[in-house]
Give the backbone structure.
Amino acid sequence: MSIGEKANTHKEYSNERNQWIGKRIARIDGPEKVTGELKYMTDENYSNMVWGKVLRAEYPHAKIKNIETEKAESLPGVICVLTYKDIPGFNGFGIVTPDQPVLCEDVVRCTADAVALVAAETSEIADEAINLIHVDYEPLKVVTDAEYAMTGEAPYLHPDGNIHSHVKINNGDVDQAFKHADYIFENTYYSPRQMHAFIETEGGWGLVEEDGTLKIQCPGQYAYRDRLQISRTLGINPERIHVISSPNGGGFGGKDEITVQIYLALLALHTEGRPVKIHLTREESVQAGMKRHPFKVQVKTAANKDGVITANQVRAVADTGAFASLGPAVISLAVEHACGPYKIPNVDIEGFCVYTNNGIAGAFRGFGVNQVCVGIETHIDMIAEQINMDPIEIRKKNVYHQGEKSSVGHIVKSSVGTHETLEKAQNCELWTNQNIYKSQPSEPWKKRGVAVSTSFHAVGMGLDKPDYGAASIELLHDGRLKVAVGPEEIGTGNGTVYAQVCAELLHCDMADISVVQGDTSETLDSGTISASRSTYTGSRAIATTAPLMIELLTGTASEMLNIPAKDIDVEDCNVIHKKDHSILLSFTELYDYLSINKTSTKVNSQFYLPKEKEAIKGSGGAPHHIYGYQTNVVMVEVDTLTGETDVLRVVSIPDCGRVMNLQGLEGQTEGGAIMGIGYTLYEDVIIEEGYHKTSNLGDYIIPTIRETPEIETIPVEAPEPSNPFGAKGIGEVVMIPIIPAIMSAIYDATGARVKHLPATPERIFNAMKSTTSSVPMSSR
Amino acid sequence: MKKIQFHLNGKKETVHCPPAKTLLEVLREDMGLTGSKECCGKGECGSCSVLIGDEAICSCLILVGQVENESIVTVEGIGLQDNMDVVQEAFIKEGATQCGYCTPGIIVAAKSFLKDIEHVPTVEEIKTALGGNLCRCTGYQKIITAIQSAARNKFALSGEA
Ligand code: FES
Ligand code: FES
């Protein structure tokens, strides 16, 4: 075993003796949230503030011939009007490829593009100034379809053409497998342009402080990367920029990329020390914000009579809109996950990330897996039906176990709970009593269906990206402890988990811990809040740091009292004698002693997340080391007269490794279920000829409380050996298998397969009417 | 500019502002009460809900000129951290808040709903009452549980049920 491997194998931590970890714990930020006392950054106010606004492109694709700002500049109350000419550094941003101009110079490629910025005394004056900026455009041909964009006919939207990335995974020999298969299923699936629809739209503050520090307070998902991207555009050292990125009124990946941070930074340079605020209206957020990549996915699956899947061929095309952002990483993850958590010996998978003029797509909970899970899961159900096999049994037969080879060809060494989640599904009340439920529709013209699906999602970054965790713990003057971890609070409750871990390891009450997240002057760089990584990363980083704090505390007490450090322990913010648990000193006394002696009361440490050793060439980062798994059972009811569909019950069976906080886990499974229902049945941002037809939450339907089914969570805990507590991650997979489960439940109810999501009443109705439902083709 | 008077969280307040300013803007900008949020600005999401009289209303749709002499209660008026309402306590205990941006509006709607009823509400009743409040994080299930548990606690406290 190499050193790296050893470092990633922990003795299993027993949750039984725990006071905090693994319990159902209420959120630490609950009180300030339910009373409205928490100031989100978009709630802040400064008396000397000015308002910032962004002029967006009028056309989805056009040449800029001229930008005239004089009229806007001379409007009373306008403080500055900025264009590309005012950018001191590099005019571009983007997490993977900085191909998005901060302010467009010669061309606009989507209506999200920013052309100019205004700062003014009031929001109304800023709006008026935006209207007074005159941009001369020459409209260009609009590329509205990703498949068309890939042809030679489409105009190039970027110098290297419209295919931003092309990734592949090949394993075995699909041609041979198709030749010898008993059954082959082949279909094409389309997925929607889902919007994050976080309740807090993008916004924040920029300010140049008296000492010259540029302070950006803006909800985000990775303060250090935001800082780096700002620094490039401004051409200044990142050290001079202070980014505060937490808390967020919702993220889901939609605040992973730069939203308005760079605009705030540019404007702040021109407001003479006055704080500038931008807060997008919902309409602007719909037009300018990231969306989920719509995919076209062609899938061909082969199986034998015994239910063994022998081959899967997938071609996925992702519409990334005008810029890459995290598109290339999304398509890589899609390719890695396109065959599900199965051991299919022959696979041929390829994915394209393609530019169009359809707004911008980027990171979104599930990260490409939502789009591709549908093909394999639907085909497994088709195979099961064909050979008359139980849909859970066929999955159990094909899933990989820990230590086995996955479809992409690597041995999975981390924990795998799929099989157990399927067993739990098989025994759950909804599944065992499904026939009774199905025989009781609420109206005679309605039909009920029950279905199951399973999927997985990687935890942490792929092989091609660095992935560090870090934490610091500080003894405060009042004897309490402050734990600082990078990943932001975007709603998931990771901060509560951090407090639980810190309290557990330092043997104190959670109330004695304060948590800081997402702040470049307080937290070390510990990566993103994305990739389902923040529970794993934060808990492990704190577990690596806590012993250093104990060493500092017991060492200091030993020095003060002349007792060997090994006889000393900590408990309830005191140091105690190990033998009789008598209190020796309080933490406040230790703090005083350390500060008199000018010794730091802060400790910190880092670790590197475990990675696979061998990359799959051409895959863009596969395979990952750790995965979370989930199985869903759902029941739907379809109105056969209208196609309207309700999801009535959901059973979510996640494997996130050891559960750190049951309430937090349920928060994820329930929220994920509803977001998955929205994706499958309702949500789609409509863009026609490059223009958004969707404008606000009136014409973009997210599920309301009325659509909430009964959701049950049955956790499976397959402990992950590389985390000290056995934890993995869960934030994304919770919304994945529910998508194909709903699609198959609609089929179970009506015999209609909808392959184009969202499955609107119209599409379901048409599918019910149509007779062209997929029939197995003979392969010989 | 117009002088407008109303009762806010039990106190008489006077503001001088354009009468066409929305109540939400006045609360957030003039009164410094930022518990009420703007998410859609169009009456679609309920995150700006406040009580006007006993009714939960979207304050983004109300012009401040319309609330002359009215009595308004915001989430801050329902309870602060040292004197939380049973509804707020139930939301914390049941995990009915995540990112929390929708939460103040939902607390206001729940409070207004519970005022009018004398029993532990059914799921269907809660769904009807809260249908105008969007939440993107929780999936609503814990909100339903929290409202039922708040009702139970409310009756336990008042000895009604
Ligand atoms: S902000 Fe008022 S209803 Fe959405
Ligand atoms: S808790 Fe985030 S929107 Fe409701």
User: Anything to note?
Assistant: Chain A has a mean pLDDT of 96.
